[in-house]
Amino acid sequence: MEEGGEAELREKLARAAQLLFFKHHAQPGARGWELKRALGRDYEKILQVLEEEVNKLGLTIRRVSEGEPENDRYFLTLKGHPTLTEARTFGWRIDDLAMLTVALAHLLAKGGKAPFKEVEGILEEKFPKFRVEPTLERFIRMGYLSEDEQGILYVGWRTRAEVDQRALLTLLLGREVKGEASQEEPSRSGGPSQPSPPPS
């Protein structure tokens, strides 16, 4: 019985890994109801065991709430933050990363949402226009951004799971403040002094 139980567990672990590793409907991972259907009611316990195994590979299982527990999305991602070199090996272009950063920074500064056209216009000031719209559409398909029927962009489920939004905003605000300080510094200390008034 024990051998049969272990074999069943290994089979369920393999099935869970397949569901989380590969894309479904153009997005990675699987929803709770899919895992429950494939693994049974104890799917969360199966995921806990799988988590221990993938941790050895530098991976972790993330869960993103989508309202009802059975609608929650589970997927595999890196435990830490990838380096720029690692991101490029995953198929990311440097300018794509920059576009996503600018788009997310604008959305976060606006409370998490902004019109698609507004974000598109900001990106077109910094990147080639012909690449902006298709790249935003790809971010939506990938889950990093989401768009409603009124054309409003929101922070997507994958951003909520993979991106430390507070750290990103702090980093960007810190750079902005530092940049403003460096511009003011010459006028306070190193800039030309004001001419003395003529003697009376």
Descriptive account of the structure:
This protein is α+β, with helices and mostly antiparallel strands and 200 residues long. It has two domains: 69 residues, Aspartate Aminotransferase, domain 1 (Alpha-Beta Complex); 90 residues, Orthogonal Bundle (Arc Repressor Mutant, subunit A). 59% of the residues lie in helices and 14% in strands. The strands form three sheets. The protein has a three-stranded antiparallel β-sheet. Helix 1 packs across helix 3, helix 5 crosses helix 6 and helix 5 packs across helix 9. The radius of gyration is 24 Å and the shape is elongated. The chain starts with a helix and ends in a 10-residue tail after the last helix. 18% of the residues are buried.
Spans of at least 5 consecutive residues whose pLDDT stays below 50 are 176-184, 186-200
CATH fold field value of the largest domain: Arc Repressor Mutant, subunit A
The profile of the biggest β sheet is: 3 strands, antiparallel
The span between the termini is 107 Å
- Compute the gyration radius: what is it? 24 Å
